[in-house]
Specification:
It is built from three helices and seven strands; from the N terminus they run ββαβββββαα. By secondary structure, the protein is an alpha+beta fold. The strands form two sheets. The chain has a five-stranded mixed sheet, covered by helices on one side. β4 and β5 form a beta hairpin. The longest helix is centred in the C-terminal third of the chain and has 11 residues.
């Protein structure tokens, strides 16, 4: 498996000024050109990306809160961990987040966000209204890639255990019996 270069620039970026998002919402379609599929594959640590598309819906909930819904469709090529033959794996993701702008011009507009420690879906806090909508897509895409892909019908069979060597005491017992 190829390894992702942590310092490499993300292969997909799309910055949106959240202050311009209407309450009715806006849809942003993100496509990776065929020429950039190799860059995305190298960044994600796979052999190839045959197709990649994503759509993001942004909706303004209040002056400082935004709903982020994303749909990702991709086809990645990886080596089977058993046979090393190329395996094409579909990646299908639908996920959402709530964004909360914590630094804004007029703090008196909205009360502080109340979050319960038991909540799993706490809002993602952001400090700048200029938000890269491609960032969460790339995060979820990399996490959805199967780390141990297998070709259809292939199962891993562990090697047969080697027979245990005879104990030195058993060898001595046989020598005693032979005398």
């Amino acid at each position: 498996m190829l390894t992702r270069d942590e310092g490499a620039r993300a292969p997909l970026e799309k910055t949106v000024d959240l202050s311009t998002v209407p309450q009715a919402g806006v849809e942003i379609v993100l496509e990776v050109a065929d020429a950039d599929h190799a860059k995305l594959a190298q960044w994600a640590g796979v052999e190839a990306v045959q197709a990649f598309s994503a759509a993001v819906e942004l909706q303004k909930l209040s002056q400082t809160r935004f709903r982020y819904q994303a749909r990702v469709r991709a086809e990645v090529v990886q080596s089977c961990v058993v046979t090393l033959v190329p395996v094409v794996t579909p990646v299908r993701l639908d996920f959402g987040r709530e964004l909360h702008l914590v630094r804004h011009l007029r703090p008196e507009i909205e009360a502080p966000l109340q979050v319960s420690p038991a909540d799993d879906d706490t809002p993602e806090e952001i400090e700048d209204p200029r938000f890269d909508v491609a960032g969460p897509i790339l995060e979820e895409f990399v996490l959805a890639i199967d780390p141990y892909p297998r070709a259809p019908g292939v199962e891993f069979a562990p090697p047969e255990p080697e027979p245990k060597p005879e104990s030195p005491f058993a060898v001595l017992a046989k020598l005693k019996q032979g005398q």
